[in-house]
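User: Run a structure prediction on this.
Assistant: Running it now.
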Amino acid sequence: MKKLPKIFVLDTNVILHDHNSIYHFQENDLVIPLAVLEELDKFKKGTDTINYNAREFVRSIDEITDPSLFDNGYPLGRELGRLTIEMNHPFPPELEGCFKDDIQDHRILATTIWEKSQHPDRIVGLVTKDVNLRMKARALHVLSQDYLTDHIKEEHIQKNERNVITLKNISEAKLGKITAGNIDINEMGIKRPVNNQLYKFVRTGPKGRKPYETAALGRFDGNSNKIVNVKPRMAYGISPRNDEQAFALDAIMNPEIRLVALTGTAGTGKTLLALAGAIAQSSEFDQIMLARPVIPLKNQELGFLPGNAKEKIGPYMLPLYDNLSVIKKNFGISSKENVHIEEMLKTEKLLISPLAYIRGRSLSSVFFIVDEAQNLTPHEIKTIITRAGEGTKIIFTGDIQQIDQPFLDRWSNGLTHLGDKLTGEKLFEHVNLLHGERSALSELAGKKL
């Protein structure tokens, strides 16, 4: 007997996350409660990605004039299931007292239970990115799950986090060739490395003793098929304090690498290195732009804050100004370096802005730093990169362990997707910073708390 397709009821946040989500459930049938359409109506206006997704989905549904959409289901396409818009249904009498609040989440959950009662021969489940709603569903013995289509597997994430390969027992002769410039991968015995693979080369200490520290750093250059020596360099008064920072600054300063992802916990120097490298190369770009998504605390929107638009967003941009202050402290108050920075700020050659203000722009000959990129969706990351014109370089920084967006996690955020999908491309390099360098106190908190 042929196994019947499953029925999935979609929550609003799945559509707001991906307006094409209805095409990602293979042969299974989909149900969208009317409560979801009511919620989507509230998100139609605005410039954020969720507003775009709400509008696109509503438009696509509006194009379906077939009455089967509200009856026995509209076929979504070959090897896909059917889509049904279902009226809201109440909880069955025995569950009416469980959830007294008449809210959309409960209406969606009640409709899922109704679908389950109508199809006892089929598996019926709720798909939502809301953890609390999943817990409520499971409490009522209703199958529930996250939207997993764009989840990156944990083993892939861990592989990207360990993106530096350590090679031991390297002879002095080979180390000499590496530090002198580069060495062919065949001579190193390295087989099929990906573009911009990073290496630490370690000597072996005297017998019975621990190995020496890293003797050389290298990066595989796919154009020359050689391991290129990565030498620690300084950028506008900032020098690397560990091997990973040396790799990061090398990627930031390398004109052949146009897209860089810097990941790591707070205090590892991601934003500081990116900003210092940008200012050091200011003559090579028309503009340096620093942006970050505005994530208000406690859901307090910008409209509740006093002042004009610039004054409203000021507090959210303070972390970027803090990094700029660290760079300026390396020089005297009236030094030419600090005068240069102030002049760039005045003329907006160096522009610090919320990411929302960047939307719609075409970025040509721009050094673009996007901070807190773990709070962006894969679609938002793609949108930013596709706006890059000739001569533009983009640096994404963030910590995938510290996500403030309610419906993103370490497996589905845009920064994770970037590292997973583009690793091995010649224009891209990912460096995961491991060691906190802000202070001993910051390092202690990062490890122990």
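Residues 142 and 422 are 38 Å apart (CA to CA).
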